[in-house]
Amino acid sequence: MRGDGRHWRVGVVLEAGRTDGWTDAWMDGWMEECCERCVGSLPWASLIATILLYMGVALFCGCGHEALTGTVTILQNYFEVIRAPGETLDVFTIIDILKYIIYGLAAGFFVFGVLLLVEGFFTTGAIRDLYGEFKITACGRCLTAFLMFLAYLFFLVWLGVTAFTSLPVFMYFNVWTMCQNTSLVEGANLCLDLRQFGAVTISEERKVCTGSEKFFKMCESNELDLTFHLFVCALAGAGAAVIAMVHFLMALAANWGYLKDASRMQKYEDIKSKEEQELHDIHSTRSKERLNAYT
C-alpha cells in the first residue's frame, strides 16, 4: 500500500474492520492535527472581511435597485411625472444611470473581494512556509501595498456612497412620517413639491398636498412603505461595506508588515547560509591540503 506510515496504518485498520483503543486514540489525534492545520492555514481576517463585503454589496445593490424602481412607480402614479422624450436628462434618466452604477459596483467589488481573499491566502502561506514552497518577494510586497491603496480608495468611495444613500432615506422618512401622522397634519395643508428635491424643473409643478386624494392613496399603498424600507436596507448594506473596507485595511496593513519582517529574516538566513557554506568549503580545502602534505 502506498503512502507514509500513517496512511498504511489507517488502511490496515479499515481492511481489518476493527479498531482497538490505541488505534482510536491515534486516529483521533491524527484527525485533530489535520483539522488544526486546515484551520490554521485559513486567512480568517480576510475571509471575514470578504463575507462582510459581499453581504454589504449584495444588500446595497439588491435593495437599492428595487428602491429606485419603486421611486419610478411613485413618481409616475402619484406625482404624474412623465419621462421626457429623446435623450433629455430628467429624473428617470438619472435613475437609470444609478442602476447601471449599481451593476458596476456589484461586478467590480465581486472581483475585488476575490483578489483580496486570494492575497490573504498567499500571504498566509508565504509567512507560514517561509523556507518552503513560497518565497517573500518584492513583487509580493508591492502587490500588498497596491491592494492596500485600493482598499483605502474604495473605503472613501463607500463613505461617499453611504452619505449619498442617506439622502433618499431622509426624504422618504419625512414623507413616511407625514403619512403615519395624517391626523396631526390634517389641517396643516402641507405639500410635497418635487421642485424642492430637484426632481423636476422649476417651471413644472408636481406636488401632492396632505388633504388630496392622491396623498391618501400614496400613504395607503405598499410602494411608499416598501421603498422607504428598501432604502434603509441599502444604507445598512453601504455601512457594512465601509466596515468591510476598514477590516481589509487592517488585514492588509498587518500582512504588509509581516511580509516586510519576513523578507528581512529571509535575507538574513540566506546570508547566514552562504557564510556557513563558505566556512565549510574553507575547512574542506584545508583538510585536503593537510592530507596532501602528510602523504
Describe this structure in words.
By secondary structure, the protein is an all-alpha fold. 77% of the residues lie in helices and 2% in strands. It is built from 7 helices and 2 strands. It has a two-stranded antiparallel sheet with strand order 1-2. The longest helix has 73 residues, at 222-294. It is rod-shaped.
Key terms:
single chain, 295 residues, mainly alpha, two-stranded antiparallel sheet, 7 helices, 77% helix, rod-shaped, disordered N terminus
H/E element order: HHHHHEEHH
- Stretches where pLDDT falls below 50 for ≥5 residues? 1-19, 130-134
- How many helices? The count is 7
Distance between the termini: 53 Å
Beta content: under 5%
Gross morphology: rod-shaped
Which radius of gyration do the C-alpha atoms yield? Answer: 33 Å
Largest sheet: 2 strands, antiparallel
**Counted beta strands:** 2
Report mean pLDDT, rounded to a whole number.
78
Q: For the largest sheet, list the strands in their spatial order.
A: 1-2
Structural class: mainly alpha
How helix-rich are the residues, as a percent range? over 70%
Quick gist of this model?
The protein is an all-alpha fold.
Topology overview:
Blueprint: H1 5-16, H2 21-40, H3 44-77, H4 91-128, H5 138-180, E1 191-193, E2 207-209, H6 213-220, H7 222-294
Antiparallel strand pairs: 1-2
